[in-house]
Design goal:
The structure holds two protein chains of two kinds. By secondary structure, chain A is an alpha+beta fold. Chain A has twelve helices and twelve strands. The chains are: A alpha+beta, B alpha+beta. Chains A and B meet through strand 1, strand 4, helix 2, strand 5 and helix 4 of A and helix 3, helix 4, helix 5, helix 6 and strand 3 of B.
Amino acid sequence: MALSTERLGLYNPAKPMENRLTDLGPRHFWQYFPPIIQNNYGKWKYHEILEPGVLVHVSETGDKVFTVRCGGCRFMSVEHIREMCDIADKHCDGYVRFTTRNNIEFMTDSKDKMEALKKDLQSRKHVSGSYKFPVGGTGAGITNIVHTQGFLHCHTPATDASSMVKAVLDDLFDYFQGMTLPAQLRISMACCLNMCGAVHCSDIALLGYHRKPPVIDHEVIDSLCEIPLVIAACPTGAISPAKTEEGKKTVKIKEERCMFCGNCYTMCMAVPLADKEGDGVTILAGGKISNRISPPEFSKVVVPWLPNEFPRYPDVCAHVKRIVEAYAADANKYERVGDWAKRIGWERFFEKCDLPFSEHLIDDYRLQYDTYRTSTQFKYTEAAWDVSRAAGGIE
Amino acid sequence: MAFEPREEQKVLKYEELRIYSDAELHNYTDEELKNFKVKHDIPDVDELEKGPWPSFVADTKREALHRKKLAKDRMMIEADVAEDLLGQLQVSFDDGETHWKHGGIVGVFGYGGGVIGRYSDLHERFPSIAHFHTMRVNQTMSKFYNTDYLRCLCDLWEYRGSGLMNLHGSTGDIIFLGTFTEQLEPVFYELGHVLQQDLGGSGSNLRTPSCCLGKARCEYACIDTQDMCYELTNHYQDELHRPAFPYKFKFKFDGCPNGCVASIARSDMSYIGTWRDNIRIDQEAVKAYIGGEIPPNAGAHAGRDWGKFDIQKEVINLCPTQCMWMEKGKLMIDDKECTRCMHCINVMPRALRPGKDTGCSILFGAKAPILEGAQMSVLTIPFVKCESPYDNIKAIVEKVWDWWMEEGKNRERLGELIQRYGIPKFLEVLEIPPMPQMVTEPRSNPYIFWKSEDVPGGFERDINVYRAKHKR
């Protein structure tokens, strides 16, 4: 049965439950493994990165699979996917896969095929000049940035995602195609605190953030939203019931208690937070997921806010690059950004990355005590002398 | 070894299923594309075509031109949907705010998830994206595909939707971005009847589970991540499609503690492959690493001159438990002290391999910051054997869900519920004893919630008995 071209296809709106198929689940994976993967499933012995973006995996059977990894946008058109299919048909017997970080992986069973594939991939460019399938994203470098929907599809963003990722990766392109860093460096991007991308454990996280409390649509809030749910949605108890001058039920907000999380807006469309001047980008650093050497870590806020400079975010790009370059210059081999910051001390991290330290970076939410330094072990940096001076301790 | 689907699946052949002819698929030239201008003025969006990284704008324009040149009756929604999307993006840049309306309840009959309603608040200016609903399509495990399957999806989505998608969404689904309400059921029927393919999860239900690439192409994988993910996804189809939970619930399967699918940071129930015997050592290969014959870390650091490989400095001294040493030219490991961090194995994959007696650790409760701050999963069950059909794991899942559905508040994730009740209560639910591995250190306050039954005689006391001994 071919795909239908009828306006409503196989669906009959007069009998919506007729022939309804449910709970089929995903298609089974085994049929999508190329033969070399099926034949060597569970038998892989070791792998090697032959050059940035090219891997070989060697099986106990002696088989080798060569993988070429390409970066790409997770937002893509069917035209792009069809081109991907053409490549897979030409070089890879019609198989292709995607990584968790939205890279595209083409696999071949011989080195010669891999070389032809790689050449083909590198030659493909959009008419306006950008690569369609840049090869890279392996080893001690920067791989694709995982991200969220932003202005292309989301109703709660404090910034855009695809454009920021494009700008940042243009800037860090050499790190994508190289393996010159002390360890892998994972950048993630989420356009609001809901973090569809779960960026909170990344070496560098870019996070859209609101800075103005919700503005209340008094006229409709009572008819569109469950006011008790809106009140309950606030983690700091900043929202309470109120009445308008005309006596309509609404809410009021204790502005000094708002931490701009947007949870109320998730529950109720009548309390939007988005604001051109208020919204911007927070940068976090030092998180990771791997258990390697040190346990997984949360990322920490290192830049409280930068403006949304659409479409290319020069300030965000510059800050990211500063962190990457300071890390590249100073960290030990195998040391992730967070491990490096811990070893040199966060005070030194701010100094080496040339980032100002403001009161915004000191936790004053619920578990703040966990981050208090209760020790006399610290390093002297300019920020420390500033404090001593301000306290009258030194000239 | 081979895996079979639960029910037989027909092989999809694009040639038999396709909608568009070759002529329709190749309906424009590069020259036309170079000269193509979308119908809206989008100066800032155009800026995003510059630079080496793949441009999503260049790609979207390609789709826009392709649609423009298809016959009108060869698409069930408007041809200029991609152009309107870029137009709205420009206005969003100008305004510094999104132009998608809040929510919108749409879906397919009988399912509470898989479709996310989306409407433009600029529908008069951009009528072709007035509706721009998302459909989540359950990806294959580890995202391996063949081109027959992908081409079918492309034809289906270009015909009945915008032709724009995400490969993949954050949770792992294939995301179809943008169609009108009318086409939701038709897409669902085509997916089910023609492609034997179901939607994924959204809302307060089991979200589409996902896994790392596992044994398909990784020597570190300690569990069959694909098979586990497939089996649990299919076993819990009802929970995936029909929201009955307080909030979302995520399963993710990592084959080893490297955690490529980030289960420890973003799943309510994280399955992470591990082993309980000894790391396998090939002493000859260790010598080859020391002698510089094999690049360390599989060549991951080849872009910079880090000097000669030094096993003492790069492996032994970095071992977090200091359980390795060299003895008479051989690498020794005190495996009972090893915490399986993977560092030595990552540095010397040809010399060291995970053990053979494998299973997974189960951790619970990870989530992003909304609401009470981010949480990572807490190590709760150190080792579980993972053999199909994973009945031992399903038994654990169901205990957790029963408790969470009973006690969880609206929009309370499992991790928050565990914090609200404390790990001791969670252990009671799981019917497992406590172990020191569940915490980084024991509590430093003595505020123990002793129960009446813990204390001889219980809490029930008589003040008169007390007063008989102690005058007021």
